[in-house]
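The records we work with from here on pair a chain with its fold. These numbers are not coordinates but entries in a learned vocabulary of local backbone shapes. To see the layout at work, look at the sequence and tokens printed below.
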Amino acid sequence: KPKTITLSRLESTLASVELKDLSSAALEQYRASAKIVEKVGATGFNRRLVQQGLLKPEKGISTPTGFGLLLFGSEPRAALTQAGLLGTIHFADGTEDLQDFDGPQVLVPEQVLEWLQNKLPNPIVRSAAQRQRANEPLFELVREGVVNALVHRDYAIEGAKCQLVVTPNTILVKSPGQPVPPITLEQLQSFSAPMLSRNPVLHYVFARMQLAEER
């Protein structure tokens, strides 16, 4: 008999995860960014999340899917240990600063920027009519890299984490997983890979929040 195709086990609900495990602040930020009319917690809002694959009705109760927990869960790593992003800054004097971003993943990109801006130099440039921060373009690139790492990683690899590693000369973003078949590494390196998302539900939500593009 024909079988239902499952791209990821995160499409399903997880044991012991309930609607109350989602962060109201993260859901509210999603609602505001995506310009959703219905209020958080309202029937229409939850129905929208069901349509987007973030909630699933089970026995008359809307329950978060793995994707819903990953994006909006107050503590997604309680049920998905592979979730989150590990940040490490190696300073020139040999010291380190560590930061784990374990909360709702929709909030992680901005949290990463705030952390880096507090730790890395960002001198003021006064050459223009309005003074600007020299490293603002750099921080925007880092945010884009972090979003891509979270959206496109292979969450089936449970023993690895997304990581951001900063040294005096480099910023490295790591995301577990091989390219999505049939895309090859060579196609990625030559910038000829077709558009194919490993986690379209994550991609959609980050796009609605103006943190990623689906093009």
User: Anything to note?
Assistant: The CA atoms of residues 122 and 136 lie 8 Å apart. The two ends are 35 Å apart (CA to CA). The mean pLDDT is 89. The beta strands are 55-58, 61-64, 85-90, 96-101, 124-125, 132-133, 162-166, 171-174.
